[in-house]
Amino acid sequence: MNALNNLIFADATALFEKAKFVIFGAPYDGTSCFRTGSRWAPNAIREASYNFESFIAAYGVDLAEVPICDIGDINTGLDREAFFREVEETGAKIARDKKVSIMLGGEHSLTYPCFGGHRKKLKFVVLDAHLDLRNEYMGAKHSHACVSRRVVESVGNENIILIGIRSGAKEEYEFAEENGILYYSADRINSEGLDGVMRALSGIRGDVYLSIDMDAMDPAYAPAVSTPEPFGISPSHVREIIQKVAPRAVAMDVLEIVPQYDSGNTAILGAKLVREFIAVACSDKKL
Ligand code: MN
Ligand code: MN
Questions:
Q1: Phi-psi region for residue 119, left (φ > 0), alpha (ψ -120 to 50) or beta?
Q2: How far is the CA of 55 from the centre of ligand 1 (A)?
Q3: Residue 30, class by beta-carbon neighbours within 10 Å (0-12 exposed, 13-18 middle, 19+ buried)?
């Protein structure tokens, strides 16, 4: 971890041993293909987190009273393999102590090593504009464009739900159909609402990994992402999904923010989603 980084996520003042939620930054964007720069996002999200009150009235939770720890960033001087290994070890260390891990990316490929650290079959709820079901992309199997494919290979077709989808190669859509991978398009959510998604989420049994590729949301709300895709879902949709999933989540991540393209609102939204997640996860109101 990078000890030089003194900036911590707001209210994340607990010691690791005492923490229920552990935040870490994963500043890696080595396979980003359109806009690079998500490696700068962990600190942009941390800075944005100071915008908010510690008390979250909607859930009656004061984050200043919740044991949250921010252990800093994975070392940026590492190559891809070493970086992924450290993400996996960090995920493992947090999971071993039965704490909830919150990873601030970085690009979407990082979900896979982070999940690997949990060393059990988790159920995946992935918010994304993109299917990310390619077997490989530009010669890389660990590209951001392949992350859901790698997850499917590990947990099985039936243990992943993709939400907000509106982009993929023809082969990816065929792969999803042939393998019965459940996905909800942004078009369907925007016309029918979240009823179908909520029913599917209600059917999940066991521990959940919630992965938020910020491009799931419309660029009007989250413009500063690596691969923006118009006609997305709204932050309120994402909030409802968090309200449903957070009580059973053992891990979450917020990925693909590229601060150079931001006037601040994408990082603020990312920080807010983390705060919503924590507040819901520790509130008594299981929505
Ligand atoms: Mn993605
Ligand atoms: Mn995406």
A1: left
A2: 31
A3: middle
Q: Set out the domains of the chain in order of their start, with CATH numbers.
A: 16-282 (3.40.800.10)
State pLDDT tens for residues 120-133. 889 999 999 999 99
CA–centroid distance, 203 to ligand 1, in Å, is 24
Euclidean distance between CA atoms 132 and 136, whole angstroms:
10
Protein residues near ligand 2, an ion, with CB under 5 A: 128-130, 213, 215
State residue 13 phi and psi, 5-degree precision: -105, 0
Helix, strand, coil percentages (3-state) for the chain, rounded to 5, are 45, 20, 35
pLDDT score at 3? 52
Sign of the C-alpha dihedral, residues 137, 257, 216, 202?
A: positive
The rounded Cα 125 to chain-centroid distance in angstroms is 9
Ligand lying closest to the C-alpha of residue 109: 1
Q: What's the pTM?
A: 0.97
